[in-house]
């Protein structure tokens, strides 16, 4: 746990430092760095920052390679961010997701301070609200159709909606610049989708959670043990709404519908931010902010985006508490692991912001939505022995192969014209 926390702190520090000298030199050098970073090595600004042109789409300078590096950081941390809670009881997930969102917001506040408190962009909160709404459906989906099928369906929705938004300019994102090689980008997407389907056939060995110790304590010396009531609902045996759906077909259809809904929300949660980035790159003067909008960069939108996540998550948790008649199921032992998990998720998502800005959604989304499955499966094999048997390894090998082929094509589509 301590090692993961140290790695997370080092990674976020390195990512923020690499993203701009202005972190160390102050807001007065932001514009100078912005111009030098995008054009100092001879490459043109990409579409996210307001320029177009065929050669700009095929740029391979510092900005592009930083985008690929941030995509790699995002893949790594999305692949392992739930390791801290792997053997911790999280119950129905409502309390746990709230703790995770609190940690995300805290990291966002730190980034906001490092970026010298840029003007708050309320529209970015919409993206956070979309993500939090999709995230609230995950636990019921897993209960109804399992993690494998749920992950496949919402993963496909996430991949396709996010990629299509950037590739074709839909759902609020102007189509300002296609990838350098549209053909490679499209075929890479097909391979990534096939890879996701192969993941569905890989069966994992579930691991039992460790037994919870007796929650009792000494109130006074020599007074004996006095039982302390757990901070959970008194109705632990109460059926959830998913258990009340007795018809298997209806339950499956409801879960598939929720998975598609969650995937669509995940896939478009960056659209408000990308819309703001492209709008702000025009260099117009915002009458409300009284500054050049082109001064905004991707990390300036992180805090408002994550404010939307926390506010929406808190709203859902309040509704949950009301529905449970103020007796929600709380799991104290998931608090610290949940905070660490949220920290790791925040590092991954902040890196995704930078990758989207440097590479465009059409390139970043396929890389970041398919890579974590690769990392998660690798960790599961090496450290937890979750995947065993010849059949599973065959499907896993096919999934890895198709994912690598697809990701490679998508990456090349950013830099090579074929």
Structure description:
Helix 5 runs antiparallel to helix 13 (335-359), helix 5 packs parallel to helix 14 (361-384) and helix 14 packs antiparallel against helix 15 (390-415). This protein has 418 residues and is mainly α. The chain has helices at residues 2-19, 22-25, 30-39, 54-57, 62-80, 94-114, 124-135, 138-168, 182-200, 248-268, 271-280, 302-323, 335-359, 361-384, 390-415; strands spanning 216-218, 225-227, 285-286, 291-292. It is globular and about 60 Å long. The longest helix is centred in the middle third of the chain and has 31 residues, at 138-168. It contains 15 helices and four strands. The strands form two sheets. Strands 1-2 form a two-stranded antiparallel ribbon. A two-stranded antiparallel sheet has the order 3-4.
What's the number of helices? 15
- Tell me the series of helices and strands, N- to C-terminal: HHHHHHHHHEEHHEEHHHH
Low-confidence stretches: 17-30, 36-54, 213-237, 283-294
Give me the secondary-structure category.
Answer: mainly alpha
Give the spatial strand order of the biggest sheet: 1-2
Helical fraction equals 55-70%
Largest sheet: 2 strands, antiparallel
Number of strands: 4
Query: Gap between N and C termini, in Å?
Result: 46 Å
**Beta-strand content estimate:** under 5%
Radius of gyration: 23 Å
Q: How does the overall form come out from the CA principal axes?
A: globular
The averaged pLDDT comes out at 75
